[in-house]
Structure formats: C-alpha cells, structure tokens
Amino acid sequence: MGRKWNNIKDKKAQKDKNTSRIYAKFGREIYVAAKSGEPDPESNQNLKFVLEKAKTYSVPKHIIDRAIEKAKGGSEENFDELRYEGFGPSGSMLIVDALTNNVNRTASDVRAAFGKNGGNMGVSGSVAYMFNNTAVFAFKDKSSDEIFEVLLEADLDVRDVIDEEELTIVYAEPDQFSQVQQVLKENGVEDFEVAELSMLAQSEVSLSDEDLETFEKLVDAIEDLEDVQQVFHNVDL
C-alpha cells in the first residue's frame, strides 16, 4: 500500500501546525462544496464529505458557518480545482492539489516554489500513476479484527484494516467512503483522527538527512501558498 502510518502522522502533525492557515483553506473548500449544489450537507454529498473531514481538523463552527453563508448569499467568486505534479530530491514525488480563482497565478507560484526549493514541476500524469486514490479512516478504541468483521458483515470488501500505534486504520476504495464511514459510526466509532480521501504512494523512498531537509523546505514552501489545499508525497518520514 505504501505511505500508511506516515500519512496519518503527517495529518496528525498538521493539526498542531499553523491552524489559521488550515482553517482558511477549509473555509475555501467548504465554500466551493456548498456552492456546487445545495448548501445543505444532507442533500449535497460533496459538502457532507468536506464537513466530515473538517471535523477531524477541529475547524471552528464559525468558519464553517461563514463559508456556507457566503455560498448561500450568491457570491460570484469562483474557484478552479487544479492538480500539479512534480519531483523533489532523490526520487521524491509530490502531488499538489489547489483551489484557485486565478489559474495563471497559482501555476506560476507552484512552479516557483518547486524551482526555488530543489524541485521541479512535471507534466500531468508524470507522478500520479505512482499513487492510489484511497479513502482513509483512523480511530481509537476498536481493534482491526473487530472492524474487519464488522465491514465484512456489511458486505464491504475494503483494501486493508490495520492496527498502528493505538489507532485502527481502514483503507478503502474512494467510492466506499460514505458506506464505510456509516458502518463505522453504526458500530461505535464516534471520533475519527482521519476521515478523508488521500493519494497514497505505492512505494516510499528514504532520503538522506541533507535531502530530507531540502524536501521538507520544498513541502513547506508549497503548503504556504494560499491556493494550495493539500500536498501528497512518497517520502518515508
């Protein structure tokens, strides 16, 4: 599978890192989801998914409400969903997802972040084929054996269920997200450490200390960009 526990550690670490930036990114994502259909999560699956993800990052209610109200108010602001692919040092690969109201600006900013920090942009498809789009859930207080049986009884054949450092982690097909989450909730899982779609690398690379320092600066520079929502990579941290 690749990038299992490291992916979860990355996500958990983000909870304590620059929360104002994370909240701003969620505000944009919630607005876009609410504007894409009805501003009601019960009738808008995209919005429901984003709100479930926002919960795991402890996004404050006022930020969520403000973004939904902005969508209800008929704001004319529009965003494009973009994906960039690129390379860092020593075989490291990155996928960058963005939401932008200025495609040229975002492309220029992402390219500059790569170029100034030891990386380079690739063409579409140059990296993504090495990653799998995966629904990921992580939570406490339930064993992998228990959860595997529950999912089996619900006729859900997921990719994997593992125990890792006090967490049970479920990897499923992207289109199973809602079904798996509903079954987990029905069987006593109330709080998720992770509940989202992720691009997981099929294999990981280990970097030397020097290359790892360069790579981390590259990721930080990209994540600092206003339009960037998420960065996925294949480095074993």
Automatic annotation (TrEMBL):
It comes from Mammaliicoccus stepanovicii. It is found in: Cytoplasm. It comes from the Bacteria. Transmembrane segments: none annotated. This is Probable transcriptional regulatory protein SAMEA4384403_00412. Residues 3-74 form the TACO1/YebC-like N-terminal domain. GO terms for molecular function: DNA binding. Belongs to the TACO1 family. YeeN subfamily. One of its GO terms (biological process) is regulation of DNA-templated transcription. NCBIfam families: PRK00110.1, PRK12378.1, YebC/PmpR family DNA-binding transcriptional regulator. The keyword Nucleotide-binding does not apply.
